[in-house]
Design a protein that fits this description.
Helix content: under 10%
Cofactor: [2Fe-2S] cluster
Keywords: 2Fe-2S, Iron, Iron-sulfur, Metal-binding
Number of strands: 10
CATH superfamily: Rieske [2Fe-2S] iron-sulphur domain
Strand content: 35-45%
Pfam families: Rieske
Protein name: Rieske (2Fe-2S) protein
Family: Belongs to the bacterial ring-hydroxylating dioxygenase ferredoxin component family.
Structural class: mainly beta
Length: 107
């Protein structure tokens, strides 16, 4: 089951920029690459380093901890289909932006 997380208007990044959002106990990153929004988990799958400060070149994000480079469009490590960062669909409806996240079960 999924849950739409609305992004506050002031947190929607301008082209070439990014923003950090908190949802439950997770940090999510929202990138604007040439007008296209991409949302990922702020945790590198290699060793959990934050990706927020990584270098962005086009759709490629480089982890600042170990240099791994991910394609924001697919989430996969460049030249690999085995390692990927968690991606979330982004939807725009009537000028509002939503990140679609999996609803976590209640304990």
């Amino acid at each position: 089951m999924s849950h739409p997380l609305e992004v506050p208007a002031e947190k929607i990044p301008a082209p070439g920029q990014r923003t950090l959002l908190r949802w439950n106990d997770r940090n999510l990153l929202l990138f604007n690459v040439a007008g296209q929004l991409h949302a990922i988990d702020d945790s590198c799958p290699h060793q959990g380093a934050s990706l927020f400060g990584g270098r962005l070149e086009g759709h490629t994000l480089q982890c600042s901890a170990h240099g791994l480079r991910f394609d924001l469009a697919t989430g996969y490590l460049l030249n690999s289909t085995r390692v990927c960062v968690t991606r979330f669909p982004v939807e725009t409806l009537e000028g509002r932006v939503f990140i679609i996240v999996a609803k976590e079960p209640k304990e």
